[in-house]
Amino acid sequence: MSSPSPRIAIIGGGPAGLTTALLLHKRSIPFTIFELRQKPTDEELAKPSGMLDLHDESGLAAIKECGLFNDFLKLIGECSEAQRVADKDGNILYRDEGENSSRPEISRHALTKLLVSHLPAAQITWGRKLLAATSSTTASGHTETELDFGANGKETFDLVIGADGAWSSVRNLLTGVKPHYEGRQNITLTIREVTKKYPHLAELVGTGSFSALGNRHGVMSQRGPQDSARIYMFFTMVDEHFAATAGLANQTAVAARERVLSDPALIGTWGPVIKELVTVACEEETTDNPGGVVDIRALYVLPVDHSWEHRAGATVIGDAAHLMGPWAGEGVNLAMWDSLLLAHAIIKAHETAGQDAAAFQRALDPLVEAFEVDMAARSKEKAEESKKNGETMFGEDGATAFVKFFDIFGTPAE
Prior knowledge:
It is a single chain. The protein contains 15 helices and 17 strands. It has 414 residues and is an alpha/beta fold. It has two domains: 8-78 and 102-179 and 302-393, FAD/NAD(P)-binding domain (3-Layer(bba) Sandwich), CATH 3.50.50.60; 183-300, no CATH class. Strands 5-4-13-14-15-12-16 form a seven-stranded mixed sheet, sandwiched between helices. A five-stranded parallel sheet has the order 7-2-1-11-17. A hairpin with a 5-residue loop joins strand 4 (83-86) and strand 5 (92-96). 45% of the residues are buried. It comes from Lophium mytilinum. Residues 8-241, 316-355 form the FAD-binding domain. InterPro entries: FAD-bd, FAD/NAD-bd_sf.
């Protein structure tokens, strides 16, 4: 027997899950979010994190429909929309001050805090890891999905929304397709108070985004909270398990630095300007996190044309549906666009069916199927763009190729 009122579970408390939840909350539609992480403290959310540029048709549209645009505007400005591109020796080949962009940046932590602050605390369950999801059909044709949280028990829902990222458990209900290695490795480091401590490096990377490219690798920066520069190193590597085979896994950033800077297969042949940026970032990361291991990870993607046969009672959004590389800046925007459109479908079905779970599912089923078809088409276009951009940026002379992209909008550096 289904419950008299639709039971909705959202798995994952990232931008996709939180945005969906807030849009439903505004229409008084009940739900429960299950998030793997423990609830972050205000201190944790104040720390530097990745910056997200939101686009008018997707991320910003969702923020506006949530009624948070004015609050959002108060949280931007830590990273400008300025762009700089350099070669592997640190020579600036292109710069602009953001005049060619209208995509404001917000830190991932700030976006999380903004969304969570407008949701009822009782509807977010923190520290719950989903181990498995299984669905069954009742004699009346109603589909129920059971969520197994291990020691935390099992719960049953009429609709499960998988916003649970790359290695989604909910996706396993819909398809056996798994992410595959993209061919690149990423190391993330942070320099806090960069302007005060290292004004020459702050001048190098600028107030927004910075990309030094060459030899199929990249050293990039984004400015962020606490006057930080978030440093990302990307290495094109055939070996999916590079961190372990290179001896970098379980090392501090300072310990890993020697291999990164000396190995000609990494950035051993790069110029002293970029090597200094990496050296300082490794030192600052180790100072901030004494004993902590360097954040190095392989990048994964789902197939560009990923789709699945629709199944009643469950769907996936965000990275769970269309994991792609970060080279088009579309990940969070697609995720929030998914949230916006899926919420529209849920709201419409809820208005049609009222509080009857079976009627709700019957009304929702064709709407979600249409949503999934549309999502697959949207995400394929962006995944193709991301793949193409990655090939451009991480070619042998990625800097020159990337500058050509910006030259149609702005002025090369003199």
